[in-house]
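Table S2 (continued). Query chain:
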Amino acid sequence: MSRTLALVESPAQLLNLLEWALGERGGAPDPALCEVAVLLPRDAVTRHQLRVTAELAEAEGLAVGHYDIRRLPVGFARALTALGPRLATADRLVLGDPFSGVIQRLLPLSPARDLVLVDDGTATLELSRALLAGRPLVRWHHRGRASHAAARTGRRLTPGDGRRLEIFSCLSERLRLPPGAEASGNAYTWARDRFGPPQVRPGTDMIGSSLAETGLIGTERYVEEVTSIAHQRNVERYYAHRREDPDKLRLLAEYGELEIVRPELPLELELLRGPVAAELVSLPSSVLRTLPLVLAGTGVEITVCAEATGWLRPRTSARAAAFLDEVTAIRPTTSWDPR
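Corresponding output:
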């Protein structure tokens, strides 16, 4: 029997694993033979979302284990003791984020030559370019030299010598991959069947971003601009990104007169559970690609605030700015300039 081990670190990655294992895609494993290793982050919000999403996976028959791999000083050693045998015996690895330093440290411990990537973040576009160019796998906003692990991971994911690579993504038609790699499409079939369709209510809600927490936009500028949008568009609710700083959210609630919503599940599932506003305003984000698929046929309009790329700090690298421009234009959508 072929054994599959999935390594995921975020609620969205776990959702996309569920889509890969349970959606319409052919050839997916028996859920009972797919073991999921949730590599827990440090922040409490993401840990909570992961645990709630993991309950959905367990209800579908997947075996889920939680590994506090970032808990210092012994977290990595303990997780390695538990994960080592699983990594060594898995025939196939499913990875949520090949740019992750933790994943890059674990990957050499597995001899599996059948690799699947399931993260539908727009970093998938950066991954495909890095693999084609033979570059180390480092994040688009990374500064400084790439690690040896990042270079080694890029080589490991490149098909050849019996290695197989599949990228399961809603961006599959936009990917250019090295010879031998395959792309399969994520249409969020499982999520739509399991949760939708949502009740659609009048009004406008906004989808938050962690661009300030990443350091690309100053917090004061972010609060000022989002507050302006909220007042101009009569935005009622603000769906916070799981990484957003609580102090920043308090300022948005006060000055933007916004109801701050902390989703318990990935936003795609949170909105499918409803009710959802008739219009969603989003900053440049992966949801510009995923939500039109998830909410197709509901009549919900998704508007991108393209002007947000002008809020970037002057020291932002050209690579990061170009990447955000690409994310903004990733799908035909309504574009709104607050000026």
